[in-house]
Amino acid sequence: MAELQFVARERELARLQVLLDRALGNQSQVCFVTGDAGSGKTALVSEFTRRAQRANPDLLVAVGNCNAQTGLGDPYLPFREVFSQLFGDVEDKLAQKAISPENANRLQGFLVHSGEVLVEIAPDLVENLIPGYKLLATLARAKSFRKGSIEIKPRITCIDSTGHALYRTPEPVVVNVIGASLPGRLATGYSDLDNLLFGGLPEKYSVLLSSPSSDEREQLIKKFLETGLNNRQTTYFITSELGQICELVETYPTVFTLFLCNARADVMIKSLPNVNKLKGVESLTDIEIALIKTFRTLDPSNNAPKRACITILSDVLLQHHAVITRKWLGSLLQDLKSKGFTTLVVMDPQMHPSEEFQAIVGLFEGEIQISERETPMGLDKVLRVRKLYNQRYLENEIILTREKARAMAKKYGWMNKLEHLIRRKEAGLSQQTINQQHIFEQYTKTLKALAERRPLIVVLDDLQWADAASISLLFNLGRQMTHSRVLLIGCYRPTDVAMGRGGERHSLESVVNELTRYYGDIAVDLNAATVHEGRHFVDAVLDSQANLLGEGFRAQLFHRTGGHALFTIELLRDMETNGDLQQDERGRWIEGPSLDWGDLPIRVESVIQERLARLDKALREALTIASVEGVEFTAEVVARVQRVDLRGLVQRLSREASQTHRLVRERGVRQVEAQRVSLYYFWHSVFQAYLYNELGNVERVYLHEDVGRTLEELYSDQAEHVALQLAWHFEQAGVIDKAINYLCIAGNRAIRLSANEEAKRHFSRGLALLKSLPESPERAERELELQLPLAVALMNLRGYSDPEVGQAFAHAHELCNQIGETPRIAAALHGLGAFYFTRAEYITAVKLAKRIIRIASKADDPTLLLLIGHNGQVANLSILGDSNRALMHAKQVLDIYDPKKHLSMLFLFGHDIKSVTMSYTSINLWLRGYPDQARKMSRDTLTNARELAHPHSLAFTLYFANLLYHLCHDVQSLQELTQEWITLSTKYGFNMWIGISKIFWGWSLVEKGQKMEGIAEMQQGLEAYLATGAVAFQSNFFAMLAEAYGKVGKIQEGLSTLDKGIAYVKMTGERFYEAEIHRLKGELLLAQGSDEAGVEEQYDKAIDVARRQGVKSLELRAVTGLTRLWQKQGKREEGRRMLQEIYGWFTEGLDTVDLIEAKTLLEELANK
To answer: Would you list the DSSP string of 820-871?
Structure first.
């Protein structure tokens, strides 16, 4: 039958409409459309979105698909596709007919707003979920991207008057800034089309932008007409002031003058003063088109300048006579060039931006050579663009006036931010692991912000193949997208979900259940609809076109198909092909004379079999190879594997396989490296599965290898983008080494996206495959390549202190020992050291750091190992109370560290080594009695961490900065900084830092008088911290909590807490806060009214510990406390001498609370 329209399913459409109405009312909704393969899920949703957009002119739709072959391990695949469309990249989905042309136009038109939302709200998703370069390329293809009154087609570099780049795109393309709203040529990237539009034309032109001042404009035109700027053969100028052009042409006579205009412009020209003095003007009006042209060939003896002027003012001309006009103008320009003319081309900036008009504009494009120094006016913004075009570079410079440039920067400053994000990738700064909760938060906020401007429908298809990260994000969106104009529609096959994954329950099942509890009935079940409304569907399909098919035919068809959507439609198409369905003389469908229901297939697979049987051998073979690549496939891959001519194959796929047999569809063309690839997809996944399952095991293995190697060759340096696909092909082919390699690449990419479950799956799969290879040094190397990042993924999932994390790093360490000297031992030992440190097993951590330093002494390039080893000792010795040696190791780190060489370690280890070292140093300086140096070091550390813009490093730095404020008793500064710390840690899901920051926030509340609220906050913070499995730094936290208990009068709770702290110190050796714990115990015992001998004992212990450790600041505190006790006991002079001795040692920090209190007490003792 002819192309069938969508029919029936009105009940399901009405159900979806109810949910959309709620979403449009700012009550976001979630819906799941379920049904077996071929039940019509995608068709239903497509029809619904089509109707919805027709009824709602501002509604946007974005569609994301999961992948049967790679979806389980491809993090956020459907959500990445949704993002691509929301930010203007619509070609693929448009080719698949997943979105309508109208929706594609809406999405592209929304790009100005959506791009701003992206960089303002979700900057971390650029280069992670959506490539920044791809976004800029989308801007380049957009038909209408306006900046103020200027329209551009970027990729571009914008520089200021000093040559500083404001933003830059990754590769050169054609750009046009040609007036108020005039669109320039779209850079197609396809040589055939380029040659059609632009081939054979003059290569060099000049273009001038209309400036705001008529005087400036006149000067520039004058210069063009007098000199032919830089000897270019053709120039063109954009303006709508015809009078000025005519006057200038009269002033600077042209040998050739041409006007292409509509009737309105024709009248304007006639009414202009002196118009009759223009040489040889004739006027012809044909409906809306007036062609006025004059051509007078110069006499060879005439020495006058060869000038020509062409004015184009008619979009009607270009729309209705595009082909003739293009050919004629091309010939004319060639003729002028051959005669040595300098030509001025004038265009009206208000003309309609039709495709035909863009083609004409292309006639006047080319190399633009205008620089600031060559212009008579002060211009301070230059756009420089380049594109590799027909195997040559054309370099363009376009001048923006100061006023327009400022307007652009003010209105669309987000472009600068986008370029900044891309630069960070170039500098290696965007490879940081982004916390998964932060991805969820930014994605959610982005959709909410976009929905404030335009309501959204987000469709996620084939969720049965979704990765764990996508399913988690779906759940997060479902729960967090409240009060927004968003409708989420998920489609999946319930039978596939019920089967589970790897023997475990499918994660989508629990998400659907939870969201159902939250929203109520959100399912649209097409399996149930087929059972209850199958016959109605059959009737509706038949009656969508004129027919004389009776009840008998309808009953037999329903009996055959059961109302299954795919089976019904495909069977009807087969019946048409076989002559079982025919059309009468009036075009009505009737039964064919040879119809025999007994001969018709009873399953959809049989229909497919018959359809494929009609193919010739070559086309059948091509589709079989395509099925090995997947539901989506590449013509270039099929052609190379089949060893046939690519153009011939493309023609057969696009015509026979697509139009005649309805087996595949075109998806579009993608640029890969310097070549294009032609993408197709099977009409339905059932077709692909049938062809693939027909293959024998042996043939399938060989084809997987052929497809894998061809894809590898095709994508070359961009193989990372198809790493999962390559891993799957090579695993199926038994090429284990390559499969492991691409699993490793995919796993590392997943870690960068915080898709740690997927990363764990890839590395674990690689390790499982590795076991099939014989033991060898090379195998041990490969195992280490997988084991180390697996340990990192586990650490990200469970924290440093989880036993499985320790086992993973320990195994990596064993592999390093087995292999011998390897640079990876640094990462293994660092991870293992961090595991032991976090679990407060400091002695073991010290031994590991010492070993790293020993290994470094034997290495050819010891720098990295020395940094890791000394940095480890800074942390270990600091917390053990050996601040002096910790400072010595810190000096080693800071002397060695070179940000140009070592900043990348930030991504290897999760934090910046310089920030860590400086943070510990600030505390050690304070402990040893140098408060001013400590505060300066802390400020410098914060500045360094903020400049890095690395969240985990900043969170680490904020702990030590707040600890220093706590030690200095600067409550106000601590509160301000802790608010930043809590916000940062919550934003990025740093659970350990969230707990610790609450402890500090609670302490500050107690100091500010909010005593009970503060205590509760501290208790919750400590519980949250310990819940992460971390143990370190508890001596600090116990002391802070005990101090707070003392402030609120809960002395016994405080003493119990300090006893826990003392026991913890003895158990772990964490002694950096030991002196303070004893001092605080003395303070609380004194407040309790305990025996003064016991109080003095605690002060003495504190003083003894402080002196042994050389921590003068804590010694001062303990001595001050003891002096007060002695003052009460009448031993003023002994106390004064002891306090004076320690106070006199200090040379700085005299404005800090401890030193001020000591000085006040000394004065009090002296006066008495």
So the answer is: -S-TTHHHHHHHHHHHHHHTT-HHHHHHHHHHHHHHHHHSSS-HHHHHHHHH
